[in-house]
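Lecture notes, unit on protein representations.

Consider one protein chain, 439 amino acids long.
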Amino acid sequence: MTLSIEQDLQLRIEQEHLLRRIINSIHQTLDLNDILRATAEEIRSLLRTDRVMLYKFHSDGSGQVIAESIDNNRLPSLLGLNFPADDIPLHARKMFMKARSRSVVNVDTRQIGQSPLRNLVTGEATPGDITYRPVDPCHVEYLTAMGVKSSLVMPIFHQEELWGLLASHHSEPRLVPESEIEAVQMVVDQLSVAIAQSHILAKAQARAQREAVLDRITTLLHSMPNIEFQSALKETVEAFSGTGGRLCIRHHAFSLQNDTVKSLAECLNEENPSIELYTCGWQPVMPEVAKYQHMEQYSVWQERYKFSNSDVWGITDIYQTPELRNLQMAFQPTKIRSIMMIPLQHRQQLLGYLSVFRDEIDTETLWAGQFDPDQRQLYPRLSFEVWRESKKAQACEWTVEDIELAQAIGKQFALFIQQYEIYRQVQAFNANLFQNLFG
């Protein structure tokens, strides 16, 4: 048996052991971060390179190094650092998506080898053979600034979407045989399984948390005749990590004299509004010159919901929402920046409003090198030293999950408020009847 055959056999044995360890780690833990850290360590050990990192894309095309393994500090750590979208531009991300191409770069020879798993035009599977061509000079400068002489990059997918990249970097020139590419590809395929598994678990946990919140709120609202509106409001605000909230419902809307029920708009438009108002946490401050004393009296809400539209309105930034221009002055003395407005409707009837407030936040992002976020990067950066980007008074976006939870909570509030109104009508009717009979 020749030395090369022995080496090849040994490599295959190591690859099999690596894959088995990765699969075992996926089966033994549901923590994706633990799996990613172990994977980076195992792959670097197999390839004997200076740095292996796992990079996750954000929705805007930028990304972050979320796991990393380094050999004796031969290359600097990039763990936790963010990279702008221009570093891996859209056309490169599309190439990863369409061709599922693995790439190998040798800085000294200025060659890039690409091994696509799909035909770029037809989308059909390909053998994955490596073809070489000259590498873009900008990419050479980019890797050189990183201290990298050779790299191996592989795309990671989740449900046919580009989730991130696995990158192996070495500070010296290094040949990457196809056998290594295939071994790492098997690991990447297992990572996709782990990512899918993690998403399923996260959804299940979020669903359980949502159901627990709804159960707690339902219990508080179910305590007829003394419905715990104040406690239910507090529970709702906490569910959204809010800093304040309001529950505004109509009061004494039913008239025994003419057997009519006033609408919420009628209750709000009276000189002395016929409403019940519960508040929690920070509140808007109505100036003395304000037209109304309650934010719910302003026409913006009536205009939005006058056609029985029961959609939750997640307002990310009060000051970037033209419809709220007459209300903005009430929020200026506060740090409130975002509003979740939940219309409480039951059978096409608007019973009230439930609102949750969030304060503005300060953010800090750690970037791999300084750049101007407002300008397209025309040249590769010369340094990857940590750059802290601090932003003050930022608005916090409402997520799709926030909106869905708000809709579910709104239905519970509306249902019990309707029952509460019926209960009060019956109580008023009985009291009136008693008065007529025995008064």
